[in-house]
Design goal:
InterPro entries: Quino_amine_DH_bsu. With 538 residues, this protein is an alpha+beta fold. It has four domains: 24-162, no CATH class; 166-288, no CATH class; 291-393, no CATH class; 398-538, Lipocalin (Beta Barrel). The chain is built from eleven helices and 27 strands. A hairpin with a 4-residue loop joins strand 20 (451-455) and strand 21. Helix 4 (166-174) runs parallel beside helix 7 (272-288) and helix 4 (166-174) packs antiparallel against helix 9 (318-344). The longest helix has 27 residues, at 318-344. The radius of gyration is 30 Å and the shape is elongated. The two termini are 38 Å apart.
Length: 538
């Protein structure tokens, strides 16, 4: 299994079947949890090499009769059928009292066997037999194994439901049509002959379900001991859909199958461990796929100077506008995922899912460098608004000299010390060497508007109130935060160990393209990276 990303704490409802014994009372509790109303008569699911079916007493459309029961199959080993008694329900104390008032004296009390289960088993390929004290120990052990697996499945489902379904919300935020497109368009999925990715016992394949359907992604993993028929290969499937219902992310349909020959079934909202594994596999595919495209970016439609009324579409052209749309949409979706993760786990938890903008990161960086050569403030500002900086997509590039000290000047310029001193103009575009005396290293904390801002070793800023409680969090990336410098108005400069300088300005609300819950928006990012001859403003 690939490394967990994210690996959230799954909550179990311990009040469901306390103690875990296989009793009639506990089977009734399971039935109420899985089939809470009369409109549902069956609830199926699977985990590992075990599948199960919970049924309410009914006759289906094929005239097949069912009892209140649990059916379990341990693949190619055992089948088990565990049912409540088939006799009519015993009269309640209220019914017996009513009968006595009417002069009836023969109302029976609850029979002793009403608390017993009707249990049968069969070995693979064998006949059905009564499951009692005389059954083989291996059959009793296998039944207990399946029973406790079903209990865990529904305890997790109840824990997820009682918590407000946080994992389902995270899944819906993480899986978007834009993210699916970005992943399935990677060369590892489009090139011949592999058309996929593999890591250990997990695989990812792109395919087209039907000639007229858009591409889909199948994520597979080995689900148990293999055999000649590959029966242990389970899979999830993600495909585009106009409206698959509330149980699925917008614009997508999620399905799963336990074995290759099984029919694809919709992924149910109670399959908590499956939802977590789907997130893990999707994140692993994004991490392991080539993070950058070597393709050159589309050329600018026009070069400066531009008229004030010229639109971005006229300046950038349709190809760059399409690239911008995909970049910004993926950024908004990814930022929403990160914020959901922050809300669902404590600080210092597992890293967020891979940034889908990694697909076009190299091309966009080339574009930024090309635009910088024009030295045109208007063009640079248009590009900044159309392509938000993506810290996670460029994490591997952040290897320049550390920004170790910052100081604002009276004229609104900023001095930044790396391996030398730089003077940065008020707009963050003009960057020239400065002849300034050496400065002591800055501190990763500052006070601004009554809030203490503290930088950590992961590239995060934390806004704290007077009592030290966290008010907000903002990720700037670029390695550890080394220095902070409040500037004119609501400006905050942040220097990092990876050679990046972020200029932030307080806005009316959180920036939808950035990882943060603060009201700071990034106005400029300056890159002092080792692979460039001069600082690069973004």
């Amino acid at each position: 299994m690939p490394a967990a990303a994210p690996d959230l704490l799954l909550l179990q409802d311990a009040t469901l079947c306390p103690g875990g014994a296989m009793t009639a009372a506990h089977l009734r509790q399971l039935l109420r949890a899985a089939l809470p109303d009369k409109s549902h008569h069956k609830a199926a699911g699977w985990f590992g090499q075990t599948d199960f079916l919970l049924t309410r007493s009914h006759v289906d459309e094929d005239r097949d009769s069912y009892r209140d029961a649990l059916f379990m199959t341990l693949w190619r080993r055992w089948d088990f059928w565990i049912a409540l008694p088939a006799t009519p329900a015993p009269a309640t104390p209220l019914a017996r009292a009513w009968a006595r008032l009417r002069g009836q004296t023969d109302v029976p009390a609850a029979p002793a066997h009403a608390c017993l289960l009707d249990c049968h088993y069969r070995p693979h390929g064998g006949p059905w037999l009564a499951l009692d004290d005389q059954a083989p120990p291996e059959a009793l052990q296998a039944c207990a194994e399946g029973w406790h697996g079903v209990l865990r499945y529904w305890r997790l489902a109840e824990g997820e439901r009682r918590a407000g379904r946080p994992l389902r919300a995270l899944l819906h935020a993480a899986l978007t049509p834009e993210r699916l497109d970005a992943l399935t368009l990677l060369p590892v999925f489009t090139g011949q002959p592999l058309q996929g990715w593999q890591e250990g016992q997990a695989w990812a394949r792109r395919f087209q379900p039907h000639p007229r359907d858009p591409r889909a992604l199948r994520l597979q993993w080995r689900n148990g001991p293999g055999d000649a028929d590959e029966d242990s290969l389970a899979s999830y499937q993600i495909e585009a859909a106009d409206d698959a219902g509330a149980a699925h992310p917008g614009g997508l349909r999620l399905g799963y199958r336990q074995r290759p020959d099984d029919m694809l079934q919709p992924l149910p909202g109670d399959a908590v461990e499956h939802m977590q594994r789907l997130l893990q596999l999707f994140a692993a595919a994004e991490r392991q796929a080539p993070p950058e495209s070597a393709d050159a970016p589309p050329a600018l439609a026009r070069t400066p100077p531009f008229a004030a009324h010229d639109s971005d579409a006229e300046v950038l052209g349709p190809a760059l506008m399409a690239l911008s749309h995909g970049w910004q949409a993926a950024g908004r979706a990814h930022a929403a995922v990160v914020r959901s993760l922050w809300a669902a786990q404590p600080e210092g938890g597992p890293p967020p899912l891979a940034d889908p903008r990694g697909l076009h990161a190299a091309a966009v960086l080339q574009l930024v460098r090309a635009v910088h050569t024009h030295a045109d403030a208007d063009l640079s500002q248009r590009l900044h608004q159309r392509f938000a900086f993506a810290p996670a997509a460029y994490a591997r590039c952040a290897t320049g000299p550390a920004v170790r000290a910052l100081r604002w000047e009276d004229d609104g310029t900023l001095l930044a010390w790396t391996d030398r001193c730089w003077r940065i103009g008020a707009g963050g575009l003009r960057i020239v060497p400065a002849d300034a005396s050496a400065s002591q290293d800055g501190a990763p904390h500052a006070s601004i508007h009554g809030t203490t801002v503290h930088g950590d070793g992961l590239g995060n800023l934390h806004g704290l109130d007077e009592d030290g409680r966290t008010l907000w969090r903002h990720h700037v990336g670029g390695g550890a935060v080394l220095c902070l410098a409040p500037g004119p108005g609501d400006t905050l400069a942040v220097g990092t160990a990876g050679g990046t300088l972020a200029l932030l300005r307080r806005a009316s609300g959180p920036d939808p393209h950035q990882y943060g819950t603060s009201r700071y928006a990034e106005t400029r990012r300056i890159l002092f990276w080792a692979d460039a001859d001069a600082p690069l403003p973004w």
